[in-house]
Amino acid sequence: MPAIDLPSAYRKLEGLPLGRAAVSRLYRTAAPYFLTIPAQLRSLEPGRAEASMPAVPWTRNHLGTVHAIAQCNLAEYVMGALAEATIPSTHRWIPRGMTIDYLAKAAGRLHAEATLLLPDEPADKQELPVEIRITDAKGVEVSHAQIRIWVTARPARG
After folding, report:
1. Would you call 135 helix, strand, or coil by DSSP?
2. What is the pLDDT of residues 4-57, one digit of tens each?
3. How many CB atoms are closer than 10 A to CB 105?
4. Predicted TM-score of the model (pTM)
5. What is the mean pLDDT of the chain?
6. Is residue 1 assigned to a domain?
7. Is 97 exposed, middle or buried, given 0-12, 13-18 or 19+ CB atoms closer than 10 A?
8. Whole-number Å distance between alpha carbons of 140 and 148
9. Is 46 inside a domain boundary?
């Protein structure tokens, strides 16, 4: 989980030159594994987030397409941003499982869109599915992931 208030930082900086890039970089350093991909947040609001990632040499496989694990990392990157923007501060979350289907060759810049339908009243403990659709520059869906997150109420501080 980021050590920053990601939704607030995004709202404050998204309209500034290089603002999205700065927030995206800060978010990637909060979870250092995200530094393995050059992802950038494009949109962030409760229930929906978007990110993109160019194909760079270290994200390509031996076929010249975007590696499967780079696509997984992009899915987890956008899911984490979405969870931070959607899960109320009274609760916390952690990924519990992931499935991904590779539907087409992934070449060039990829775009990921994550969605989460949050219940009106979050339970003390519940598993919620985050759907992530990854498309190429032509709009072709190249992979579809579902990351299940475990959401629990934060313990009362006393």
Report:
1. strand
2. 677 777 777 777 777 777 787 777 877 788 888 999 999 999 999 999 999 999
3. 12
4. 0.88
5. 90
6. no
7. exposed
8. 24
9. yes
